Amino acid sequence: xxRILKLGSVPIALxxxxxxxxxxxxxxxxxxxxxxxxxxxxxxxxxxxxxLMFKDGNYTSAVKQLDVAIRTEANEPLLxxxxxxxxxAKEDYLGMQVAGKRVRSNAEALKGKDNLRAHVxxxxxxLIEAGYIVKAEGLSSAGKALPLVQSxxxxxKKAQDIDPKDPELNLVKGYIxxxxxxxxxxxxxxxxxxxxxxxxxxxxxKWRGIALAYRDARIPNLALEAVNKALVAAPNNxxxxxxxxxILWMQGGSNIxxxxxxxxxxxxxxxxxxxxxxxxxxxxxxxLSGGVKCAE
Length: 296
What we know:
mainly alpha; 69% helix; single chain
C-alpha cells in the first residue's frame, strides 16, 4: 500500500510557500514573527494573513485577509509572496507568476534599505518564476528554469554574507536544503537540516520542515518528535494534525488508531482547509480506514 500520498510534492509546495513567506521592513506596525532582536516590522494586516496561514492552518481566512491587506500594504513583498502561494495552492499558475513579479518589484525597492531581505525576496521571486515555467510548460521546460534556480542560490548566498545567523533567512535556506536532501539520496540529511535546527524561526514552521524531512527520509521516530514540537507552537493547526497522522501511519501497528484520530482532527476543520488538501486528507483517511469514510 502506498501509505503517504505525494511525498515529494508536499515539501516542494511547502518550500515554495515558506520561501515566498517573508517579512519586510516597509511598514511600521506589528511584531516580527522571525526575530526576537534586531526585529523588522511588517504590516499588521499582512502579518495576520501570515499567521492565519502558517500558525493556524486557516487557508480560507488567510485568503480573505490578504484581500484586506492589499488595500493598505501593497508595497510589502510578503503580501504578494503569500498571494503567490495561494495561487499555487489552487493551481492558478498565471496568477502565481503575476504575484511573483510584484514580489520582485517590491524586493528591488528594498535595496539600500534592507539588503538582506531584498536578496531573500529576489530569491523568492526567481523561485516563483521557475515554478511557473515548469508548471505551465511541463517538465521538458526545466532547462529554462535552471538559470532562475541558480539565481535563487546566488541571492541566498548574498543574504548569508550579510547575516548568516538571521532566523528568517535560515528558515528559507533550511527548506531549500531539506528539499535537496529529499530528492538526492546521497545528501547528508543532518547537514541539510542544520540551518533549520540552529537559527530558523518561527518554531511552527521550523519544526514542521524538520518533521517533513524526517518523514520523507522514512525516519518516523524523529519525524514524530519534530511534529510534536510544531504542535506545541501551533496546537490548533490542522495541517500539523494531518502530518502527524501520516507519520503515525508510517509507523504502523498500534499507532494506526491514533493516526486516524489525527486525520479526523484535521477534518473537523474542513471549512478552513485548502480544497485540494482537504480532498487529499479525506482520501488518505478513507484509505487508512479500509474504505470507510472518516468523520468530520
